[in-house]
Automatic annotation (TrEMBL):
CDD domains: ParAB_family. This is Chromosome partitioning protein ParA. GO terms for biological process: chromosome segregation. One of its GO terms (molecular function) is ATP binding. Residues 11-195 form the AAA domain. InterPro entries: AAA_dom, DNA_Partitioning_ATPase, P-loop_NTPase. Involved in chromosome partition. Localize to both poles of the predivisional cell following completion of DNA replication. It comes from Brevundimonas subvibrioides. Keywords: ATP-binding, Chromosome partition, Nucleotide-binding.
Amino acid sequence: MAKVLPKGPARVLAVSNQKGGVGKTTTAINLGTALAAIGERVLIVDMDPQGNASTGLGVPRETRRITIYDVIVDGRSVHDAAVPTAVPGLDIIPADADMSGVEIELSQADRRSYRLRDALAGQGQNGSAGYDPHPYDYVLIDCPPSLNLLTLNAMAAADGVLVPLQCEFFALEGLTQLMKTIEMVRQSLNPSLEIQGLVLTMYDRRNALSGQVAADVRAHFGEKVYEAVIPRNVRVSEAPSFGKPVLIYDLKCTGSQAYLRLAKEVVGRERRRLAA
């Protein structure tokens, strides 16, 4: 029997855009689900105090006993905090409103911007015999829509930033600020941070503006923009209210199929990067 080589550490991607309402949490949930559907092992880290990613994956607030707050503030392990979802191969570290106080509680703490990175680096250190030191292929961090200590922790921990970009008028304006933030993090916290890619969301093919925004973004960022485009789709909007990713809620809808294409692109880019 051929020897199975050990897997390397997970690829950590911060799903971020400082502009709200761009489909950031929706992208984290459904890209994670799509990656799991094609055989990858995925952890979603909910870094938003609103906890929408946790809700959207069917984790009720009353069951969130260990959250990302406990990991960042109290040093609980990723292994202890991660809970399985209804999607095989997809776990989540949930969030709740306690996260709102992190900025104050860690104001004088050592390595305050590296708490998440340190936790992810130690995710295999739980003392269990035979525990897989690299349990995930991808870690997706759902960032809050603002520049604060939580976002800085996410970007300090990440290998790359995946940027959901709404196909509307002010999209490029918000993107300019995000690029400045990424450059600031490179200079001060994480020199290896890169833009993993930009994904166009809420695309309406009936709207000429959507097409113009998409063309402008592709002209400016070239191959960094994924070919997969996430359409404005009622089924995608409905799914979170049922605590389900859209791929579970309605696999055949256009939104689900778009996220599957995006997942294949993400994996394809990673394979090319590793082969280079």
